[in-house]
Automatic annotation (TrEMBL):
Residues 1-243 form the Biotin carboxylation domain. InterPro entries: ATP-grasp, BC-like_N, Biotin_carboxylase_complex, Biotin_carboxylation_dom, CPAse_ATP-bd, PreATP-grasp_dom_sf. One of its GO terms (cellular component) is mitochondrion. This is Acetyl-CoA carboxylase. Residues 69-240 form the ATP-grasp domain. It comes from Boothiomyces macroporosus. Keywords: ATP-binding, Biotin, Ligase, Nucleotide-binding. Pfam families: Biotin_carb_N, CPSase_L_D2. Gene3D superfamilies: ATP-grasp fold, B domain (3.30.470.20).
Length: 243
């Protein structure tokens, strides 16, 4: 299709047409675009098409940053301070920014990879960036919702690989140290992280598994945390294969 993603990579019908024409047995999600779109997976489930990944319910709950933070709170997993809901107005954003204290970060609820993400050091920057973040989220993920969190200035970014089966078993695998980044994109990863004690590693891994089990997650997934000293905070879950 044309270069615009809505007419190509996000075009469900075109993908299904190719699926049927090629007599395929399953659809592999790839790494972006529809790989974490639960509505697409719901459609496949309705048509009895196998999706190589988690089911739509788990994807909807954990692939959405707003919903996943609400689930984390219910499961007793600590998240970064922030407003665990959709930002619906400039006035609401101003109030949240004042309550959290600057700097804050705007994030696209449906996305990742640095898309729809903006760091704001003042109320002026917050108001300037929220419209940009919403627009970028809409064009990248077809979902303009954003949330606001406290921005941690110099944390370590650690993520745990998870793998689960369809019988309720979930395990965590060695973590990845992902702190070397440019524009919120990981440049290199190291496993295991040289900065985690075995005690902290086990605590974080168990929290990642707890979250996955809370939503009946299976297939591969990644639970991301920010670590500040011995404190750690759930960041988000990637409901797909890691790139």
């Amino acid at each position: 299709g044309p270069a615009e993603s809505r007419q190509s990579y996000l075009n469900w019908q075109k993908i299904l047409d190719v699926f049927k024409a090629s007599n395929s047995e399953a659809i592999h999600p790839g790494y972006g675009f529809l790989s974490e779109n639960y509505k697409f997976v719901e459609k496949l489930e309705r048509e009895n098409i196998s999706f190589i990944g988690p089911n739509s319910k788990a994807m909807a709950m954990m692939g959405d940053k707003i919903a996943s933070k609400q689930i984390a709170a219910e499961a007793g997993v600590k998240s970064i301070p922030g407003y665990k809901g959709e930002i619906s107005s400039d006035q609401q954003a101003i109030q949240i920014g004042a309550e959290l204290g600057y700097p804050v970060i705007i994030k696209a609820s449906a996305g990742g990879g640095g898309k729809g993400m903006r760091i704001c050091w003042s109320e002026k920057e917050l108001l300037e960036n929220i419209k940009i973040a919403k627009s970028e989220a809409e064009s990248s993920f077809g979902d303009s919702r954003v949330l606001i969190e406290k921005y941690l200035i110099n944390p370590r970014h650690i993520e745990f690989q998870l793998i689960g089966d369809q019988f309720g078993n979930v395990v965590y695998l060695p973590e990845r140290e992902c702190s070397i980044q440019r524009r919120s994109q990981k440049v290199m990863e190291e496993s295991p992280s040289p900065h985690l004690s075995q005690e902290l590693r086990e605590k974080m891994g168990k929290q990642a598994v707890l979250l996955a089990k809370a939503v009946g997650y299976y297939s591969a997934g990644t639970c991301e945390f920010l670590v500040d000293g011995e404190d750690f905070y759930f960041l988000e879950m990637n409901t797909r294969l890691q790139v």
